[in-house]
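So, can you check this one?
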Amino acid sequence: MSIRYCDCILEGKATLEYRKHFVSALHNAVELFVKQLMLNNTRIIG
C-alpha cells in the first residue's frame, strides 16, 4: 500500500492526503515487520 502512495507522490500528486496515507501505510508495514521479527526471535529462544 505504501508503494502505491509513494508512486503517486513521485508522480506529482503530493497532496497532504497522499502524504498522510503514505506515512500511515509505511508505519503499519514497519510495525508488522517488527512484530514478525519479535515472534521469530521468541520461537528461537523459547
User: Anything to note?
Assistant: The radius of gyration is 15 Å. The chain has a mean pLDDT of 80. The CA atoms of residues 32 and 40 lie 12 Å apart. DSSP finds two helices and no strands in the chain.
